[in-house]
Structure prediction request, 127 residues.
Amino acid sequence: QVQLVESGGGLVQAGGSLRLSCAASGRTFRNYAVGWFRQAPGKEREFVVDINWSGMKTYYADSVKGRFTISRDNAKNTVYLQMNSLLPEDTAVYYCAAKRFVVNSAGYQTESFYDYWGQGTQVTVSS
Prediction:
């Protein structure tokens, strides 16, 4: 079992930045692929970005490409999402998800791929 806890959300003005963290406990995190998803009010949860077990492969949704950066520190069992140039449409609850999966690829965009989910952290971007 892996437990995931997101943190770092908050209220920020448009154009600002936030860094989200996804901390894992329970098992060694380095063998897990991790994805970030988000759900805005009244909308379905959508894929944002994922990173493979080593951190060498990443895949971004077009809506965040060039603004968001995912990274991981396996020694700290933590994945980060640096969000820059935030827009009001980035407002959502952000979730991290994980699956034990040791391959050199990324782009796993479907929720059903992931086995473990965090509780989410709210990001609100004001205009």
Summary: The first strand starts at residue 3 and ends at 7. The chain has a mean pLDDT of 96. The two ends are 40 Å apart (CA to CA). DSSP finds no helices and eleven strands in the chain.
